[in-house]
Amino acid sequence: DYLPSTAAGMAENATSEEEVCSGALSIAAQKVAGMVVYSSQAERITSITIIIAVGLATIFGQFSVLIAVFLTERLKTAPDFIIICSYCIGDLLMLLSATPMYIYQYVMGCIPLVLCRVLTDIASAVGFGLPTHIAFMAFERCIYFCYPMHYERLVNMKSICGVLCFIYTVSTVYITWTELSIGRDYHATVV
Prior knowledge:
This protein has about 190 residues and is mostly helical.
């Protein structure tokens, strides 16, 4: 029921999952498998502390943006701020799905297979959607500056919701397709 989360080749390089999860692999086998190898406990604690600090800073920043937008009446209906808020929510979802997986893997050495699959699929779907979301934000700004007379007609709540639904539906379908056809190896190496 346990599979290492860092690289798909890990299970192939080990003779059994028990060897991987018990830490019976040599340092060389761990490096070949793509595992993060720490030389000391202090290095492990430092890595976990940095991941947690970056995660907390991201959560604070994203929630600050969301609270600022929702407390300001004028910003609640502005299309550009709706796009930014949806990006903040996507970024938080990415953080809350991927970061716990990495921390758990660093602390425990292995992740339960079901947890790994669920968190990796969420992180991958959102991770593939976020760059397109950024491109959509740039496109919206381009319309705002280059075609100001058409902005109200082109960028409204209906078009924003449609584009965002399309972006994340395509990324979710893509992740599901790769999960079913290519397999688990692809996501483990991407995330």
